[in-house]
Design brief:
The complex is a heterodimer of chains A (100) and B (279).
Chain A (H helix, E strand, L loop, with lengths): L10 H11 L1 H9 L1 H7 L4 H8 L3 H7 L5 H10 L9 H10 L5
Helix pairs in contact in A: 1-2, 1-6, 2-3, 6-7
Chain B lengths: L1 E9 L4 H4 L6 H20 L4 E7 L13 E4 L3 E4 L5 H4 L4 E4 L2 H13 L5 E3 L6 H10 L6 E7 L9 H16 L5 E8 L16 H12 L3 H7 L2 H6 L9 H10 L5 E8 L4 E7 L4
Parallel strand pairs in B: 1-8, 2-7, 2-8, 3-6
Antiparallel strand pairs in B: 1-10, 3-7, 4-5, 9-10
Classes of the chains: A mainly alpha (100), B alpha/beta (279).
Chain lengths: 100, 279
């Protein structure tokens, strides 16, 4: 996983970029993720990886690393994001070999 | 003519305002004391405006088009951006801009080989919300924010960042009105959002980098503090230190004094700040 491997043209990067900036799209992320992913043209593999918060695979596909913890916050909430928070723990579960 | 009265650089991290209570007491104390000292020193320099250089966390520029630098030209700024409010835990704030100076920076840098983007609509996350909360908590010093690309390769090389800092100082001093200007870079130190070292801090790198800035040998800093070395110390975050190299360029041939350093796993970031003592 490295910023050097980012695929700037990956549709999932555009989706995450815009969802963070737009409350209506965040609502759709919660209520109709499948439709949102189709509208942005995500590949089947991107859709599977995002649906399952498969952060490692999203990174391999070229999602920018900075978006990966943000994906956990979109699913689990952004507030009080300390190391034991649900979002941070989702990150640990998906990205690290050992439990944090 | 405008005068540069302070050049500083410091880390920002959402945990500093978002979940500081989760850090060990000595980290909390060290951070608050460090930011406190830097704020006192900044305010003592009595700047009319802060020209700030911070990395954009992929918030303002879609990947179709990421500028190396983008100058905020609005006369008024608001933060934090909506989705980031809970995360940074900073109440909504407003701070004045300085449209005239910002436009001057864009125009004059353009004549000196820097094609700067500009925008009236920059959104702020922790990049400004954290440093302003600690350094100018009354939001009574105007801000010209310059967002830079530190995380979407290709990145501006360290030499280019340093050269931009030199140019920035030159064009700020060429502003015809009386104005006291502080240059404030923010980003770093070691952290790795999105990588394997998310719950880690590279204290050895951070201390090495701070000592290197303390030598005042810009040539050596540019040779040794490479993008590769920053990436090795935390892929998605440590490269934000490129903003500090802009400040180093603006400071001229001076050594940076480290005001504080607190490696904090709880905040997932090496927290620290330096001052080039230009006054």
């Amino acid at each position: 996983m490295s910023i050097l491997n980012t695929d700037k043209t990956l549709p999932a990067n555009k989706l995450i970029f815009e969802v963070r900036r737009d409350a209506a799209k965040r609502e759709r992320f919660r209520s109709d993720l499948e439709g949102l992913m189709r509208d942005y043209g995500l590949s089947e593999e991107e859709r599977r990886a995002l649906r399952e918060a498969d952060l490692r695979r999203l990174g391999e596909l070229g999602m920018h690393p900075y978006f990966l913890p943000q994906v956990t916050r979109l699913f689990k909430g952004a507030g009080y994001n300390h190391n034991q928070s649900e979002a941070a723990q989702l990150y640990a579960a998906k990205m690290l070999k050992e439990k944090y | 003519m405008a005068e540069i009265v302070s050049v500083i650089a410091l880390a920002h991290a959402p945990g500093a305002t978002g979940w500081l209570d989760k850090a060990p007491k000595h980290e909390q104390d060290g951070l608050l004391a460090g930011y406190g000292r830097m704020g006192e020193s900044l305010r003592a320099a009595q700047p009319d405006v802060i020209v700030g250089v911070a990395n954009d966390h992929l918030l303002n520029f879609p990947m179709e088009s990421v500028p190396d630098w983008c100058v905020g030209t609005a006369q008024r700024w608001r933060g934090p951006a909506e989705w980031f409010r809970d995360w940074v835990n900073v109440p909504p704030y407003e701070v004045a801009g300085n449209r005239g100076l910002a436009r001057h920076i864009v125009r004059e840098s353009g004549k000196r080989g820097f094609n700067l983007a500009f925008s009236d609509a920059l959104e702020f996350d922790d990049n400004w919300s954290v440093p302003l909360k600690f350094l100018t908590p009354r939001y009574d010093v105007a801000l010209v924010p310059i967002h830079m690309n530190c995380v979407v390769p290709p990145l501006p090389a360290p030499e280019r960042c340093h050269a931009f800092g030199q140019t920035l100082a030159e064009v700020v001093r060429a502003w015809p009105e009386q104005l006291r200007v502080a240059i404030m870079a923010t980003g770093g130190l070691s952290h790795d959002p999105g990588g394997d070292r998310y719950f880690d801090v590279d204290e050895k790198f951070d201390r090495w980098f701070l000592e290197l800035l303390g030598t005042g040998d810009a040539g050596r800093v540019l040779r040794e503090a490479t993008i590769e070395r920053m990436i090795a110390a935390g892929d998605g975050g440590t490269v934000e230190l490129l903003a500090w190299l802009v400040a180093m360029g603006a400071a001229g041939r001076r050594a940076a004094r480290t005001d504080f350093y607190v490696p904090s796993v709880a905040l997932r970031c090496g927290m620290g700040g330096v001052n080039w003592n230009v006054a």
